């Protein structure tokens, strides 16, 4: 009898306290930022930055080039964040402020030997893809 009472007690009070709380910003406090998250197929390291490959259709892929300078400064345009969960898949979060590109966050697997990491071979020269890059244009 005590077990039934305990289970009923936990169901009632556990359910009440585990309800999600939803909050809306007042209309005058709406965020000026908009975020687009893109799951990545591969993240390649290169001497001038990162090349991220993502799907833009069923059998089509697109690349974006993220200069290393974006990630080197404290107030830069990029943050790299190591995912803690071992099964987490990398993704790219692109932030727009008032409709214009603001910054990017690159969420990558914490272990560089994971299948989603890659490296551009040394004999391949794609330096020109990283020059004068100040925004990201995603293709879908």
Overview of the molecule:
Strands 1, 2, 3, 4, 5, 6 and 7 form a 7-stranded mixed beta sheet that branches. Helix content is 14%, strand content 39%. The chain contains 2 helices and 7 strands. With 140 residues, the protein is mainly beta. Strand 5 and strand 6 form a beta hairpin. The longest helix is centred in the first third of the chain and has 16 residues. The termini are far apart. The relative contact order is 0.20.
Task: Supply database-style keywords.
seven-stranded mixed β-sheet; 140 residues; globular; 39% strand; 7 strands; mainly beta
State the total count of DSSP E strands. Answer: 7
Question: What is the CA–CA distance across the termini?
Answer: 60 Å
Query: Percent of residues in beta strands?
Result: 35-45%
Residue share in helix:
10-25%
Largest sheet: 7 strands, mixed
Question: Average pLDDT value?
Answer: 83
Would you tell me the structural class of the helices and strands?
mainly beta
Supply Rg.
21 Å
Task: Please tally the helical runs, counting DSSP H or I stretches of 4 or more residues.
Answer: 2
Order of helices and strands: HEEEHEEEE
